Amino acid sequence: MQSMQTQAIPLPFPKYCQIVQKALRERDGETLAVLLANDQQEIGERIILGLAGSHRNLLVPHTLKLPSPFSEIVISHIQVLVLSKQASSSLGETEGASWVGAYKEQVQCLSLFMNQFLINQTSWPLPVLYQLCRDLRDLGEKADEYSISSGLQKTPVSLEDTARHINKAFTIVATDRMNKGVEARQRGIYYIAGLSIKCYFKVNRPTLCKNIIRAIGSSSNPQPLDSFPIAHQVTWRYYMGMLAFLEEEYKTAEDLFWEAFKGCSWLAKRNLEQILFYLLPLRLLRGLLPSPILLSQFPVLSDTYLPFIQALRRSDIRAYDIALRALRGKLLSLSGGGGGGGGGIWTAMEKGREVVVRGRLKKIWLAQNKLSRIPIKTFQIGLQLASGSSSLSASTPTPIPSRVEDGSFGDLEDEEEYADPAEVECLIANMIYKGYVKGYISHGHQIVVLSAKSAFPPLGGP
């Protein structure tokens, strides 16, 4: 028996206006947000099917009973729905013009809502503000995608404009001095801040996030972050973790990502994956490897990080270098849902090589029965064996496999690495300086003197 596709039931525009009026009268922010969403699948489709026409002059008579500014908001919203529908079903210039037009109408909706309504209200319309801001961001992305691909503009103009409008929303929310507790518009401060910061990452200008952070720090809101909805907390901690990550403040970043991960619903796989893209490298830097069960839940993460994890587990310098070379482009291209993060991941994974070298030095020490005095020459031989006597610097134009398999690394140019004892001495001195190894070097005797108690301090932590 063939399944029948459910046909959307038309919602006549006069009836739609009555439902909007009822939601306003009952201060039902959740329902009003649904009614003003740019949703092409459910309510939006029903509204479009119920239209006798979308020209403003045809719509105005049915909106006269709506309080100001909702007559204008509803009419602009209808234009957004119609133009978005046109854009989704057309190609080329028609598609692009429709996305740009829909974006401009959405700007009108948001501006009217903020400046003539929200500013005089408590917290109940916040769901509407969230919806209007999200739709503006999505339409801005689509308008920019067309305009940039067609050569009309070189930068994401609409998304930059979106950030400015969302910043205005943030100001209206953050500066609410009259309402207190659950009635305060400041209940939306972290949600709107998260939307604003996401825009900054999308346009690759994360430094502008500092303005939002300063504003939250200086706001009159006395409530701790933990008192806000968990979804707001997760988003905020994720982006604060991103900023700390890009500044190479790895301890702070790991703590923030870990808190975001713990608070994120296991059903939100995409969000969990985004957090783990940054959390895993930070854990690897401390020698903490993810379980196979965790990796099996996220195939993209496994494809990206499994070669590094295998190399770390075996203290295999050669395998780690191959993974760095093979996955360099992918690591640099990662945007983390917001741009600007890929370079940070690449930097962290480069630093992870030091953890592999530390592991190899420790294996050499163990092979020497944990002697406290080991010749530099002994470390040199062990490192040469581990690196395959091959230098895999980023500039070496050597073709390498896209995937690392146990014991199979492809054909590599033979360039002696660690051939100079002075190079090995410098490497060990650097490992001692960074705390990976505890001891000192006797340059005159060409011997490494290791601590009898803790020659290789643990990397891991709680």
Summarize the structure.
This protein has 462 residues and is mainly alpha-helical. Helix content is 60%, strand content 2%.
Topology diagram in text:
Elements: H1 13-25, H2 29-35, H3 43-49, H4 56-59, H5 70-88, H6 92-116, H7 126-149, H8 157-174, H9 189-202, H10 209-217, H11 230-246, H12 250-263, H13 269-284, H14 292-297, H15 299-314, H16 317-333, H17 342-367, E1 373-375, H18 376-387, H19 421-433, E2 439-442, E3 447-450
Antiparallel strand pairs: 1-3, 2-3
Helix pairs in contact: 1-2, 2-7, 5-6, 6-7, 6-8, 7-8, 7-9, 8-9, 9-10, 9-11, 11-12, 12-13, 13-15, 13-17, 15-16, 15-17, 16-17, 17-18
Shape by Cα distribution: elongated
> How many strands in all?
3
- How many domains comprise the coordinates? 2
Q: Which residue ranges are poorly predicted, with pLDDT under 50 across at least 5 consecutive positions?
A: 390-415
Order of helices and strands: HHHHHHHHHHHHHHHHHEHHEE
Helix and strand content put the structural class at mainly alpha
Hey, roughly how much beta strand do the residues contain?
under 5%
Distance between the termini: 57 Å
**Biggest sheet, spatial arrangement of strands:** 1-3-2
With helices defined by DSSP (H or I, 4 residues minimum), what is the helix count? 19
Using the CA coordinates, give the radius of gyration. 29 Å
Residues in helices, as a percent range: 55-70%
Main sheet?
A: 3 strands, antiparallel
What is the residue-averaged pLDDT? Answer: 87
Protein name: Transcription-associated recombination protein-Thp1p
GO cellular component, one term: transcription export complex 2
Organism: Phaffia rhodozyma (Yeast)
Family: Belongs to the CSN12 family.
